[in-house]
Design goal:
43% helix, D-Maltodextrin-Binding Protein, domain 2, 333 residues, five-stranded mixed β-sheet, 11 strands
Length: 333
């Protein structure tokens, strides 16, 4: 006679089997850990620009921290609008990011009457990487050693001085325009596609002045190719300790001591957990000696920020720049 025990399954074993069977399809459906493939990081300026250099420093370190390649794709043009449009056309999956400056987050959209994009609605922040002062520079050998010399040249030249910038609506454009306005001196804006092209024109004396990021200006000043007139910052820079701040050079322009900043963003709608993962990688980079050294060489002060702070910084600076755009009549179609 066969025992009935041979034909039954113990309740505990049956429960475990059923639980395992129920769990298995869900386990198979779980997404791979992010990131599971290389990331694309869009740079708005051409290779060789200060913004591009900062972008690549973050890409190198982020790749180590994330365990995946971060490939930089340069898409310059229209002061960042081309890059913005590219990002907006990508999936909001955290695999296409963009480095973006104060200009594109708080100035560029507002110099067009028909706003080309909305920085507060179109992007989700990852982190603000750091800040850097801007420097007003002129060609070496031009006979301009102080801001007062530039003022005299502007008044003596029909149409005023020709000053360059990386593009319409860039911080360099607004700061130089505002400075000339405070001086009561005339000037003509000459926009370039990126800082590098403007720098070449400046050193070739095709334009008479340009506001540059500190890392770019300091290298050329030390090489004897440019003369720095003022730093748009609250303190003098250790890279150019003999160059006065804008408040020292012209007290009436003290409110123009506004540093530029650079951030990393994703397309709006990117899952918050992916933004937090990228932000955590950025924070680890901030503690990396090599990462810090490379930014120090460009006179970039690193910042600790959460993803939401990108929006906060953009709103804060737009509150300053938008009235200035209106006052100077810089908005166009």
């Amino acid at each position: 006679m066969t025992s009935s025990k041979a034909h039954c399954i113990r309740p505990a074993a049956l429960a475990a089997t059923l639980a395992c069977a129920a769990w298995w399809p869900f386990a198979q459906a779980q997404p791979a850990a992010y990131p599971a493939k290389p990331l694309q990081l869009v740079a708005q300026q051409p290779p060789g620009s200060g913004s591009d250099a900062m972008t690549r420093v973050w890409a190198d370190c982020a790749a180590r921290e994330l365990g995946q390649s971060v490939v930089v794709q340069n898409k310059p043009g229209a002061n960042g609008i081309l890059a913005v449009n590219f990002l907006k056309g990508q999936p909001a999956d955290g695999y296409t990011l963009m480095s973006i400056g104060m200009s594109q987050m708080s100035i560029t959209p507002y110099v067009y009457r028909q706003r080309p994009y909305d920085p507060l609605a179109d992007f989700d922040g990852v982190a603000v990487l750091g800040t850097s002062p801007l420097v007003l520079a002129v060609p070496a050998g031009s006979g301009i050693a102080r801001l007062q010399d530039l003022d005299r040249l502007a008044r003596a030249t029909p149409g005023g001085v020709n000053f360059g910038s990386p593009g319409k609506g860039s911080p360099a454009h607004l700061l130089t325009s505002a400075l000339l306005d405070k001086m009561g001196a005339p000037g003509t804006h000459v926009p370039f596609v990126g800082e590098g092209a403007g720098l070449t024109a400046l050193m070739g004396q095709q334009i008479q002045a340009m506001t540059l990021v500190m890392g770019t200006a300091a290298a050329q000043v030390k090489a004897g190719k440019l003369t720095a007139l003022a730093v748009f910052g609250a303190q003098r820079s250790p890279l150019l300790p003999d160059v006065p701040t804008i408040a020292e050079a012209l007290p009436a322009a003290a409110d123009l001591a506004r540093p530029s900043w650079i951030a990393v963003v994703a397309r709006a709608g990117t899952p918050p957990e992916l933004l937090n993962r990228l932000n955590a990688a950025t924070e680890k980079c901030r503690g990396d000696a090599q990462y810090k050294s490379r930014f120090d060489a460009m006179n970039v002060s690193l910042t600790a920020t959460a993803p939401r702070d990108v929006r906060v910084w953009a709103e804060r600076d737009a509150a300053v720049w938008r009235p200035l755009i209106d006052k100077l009549g810089l908005a166009t179609e």
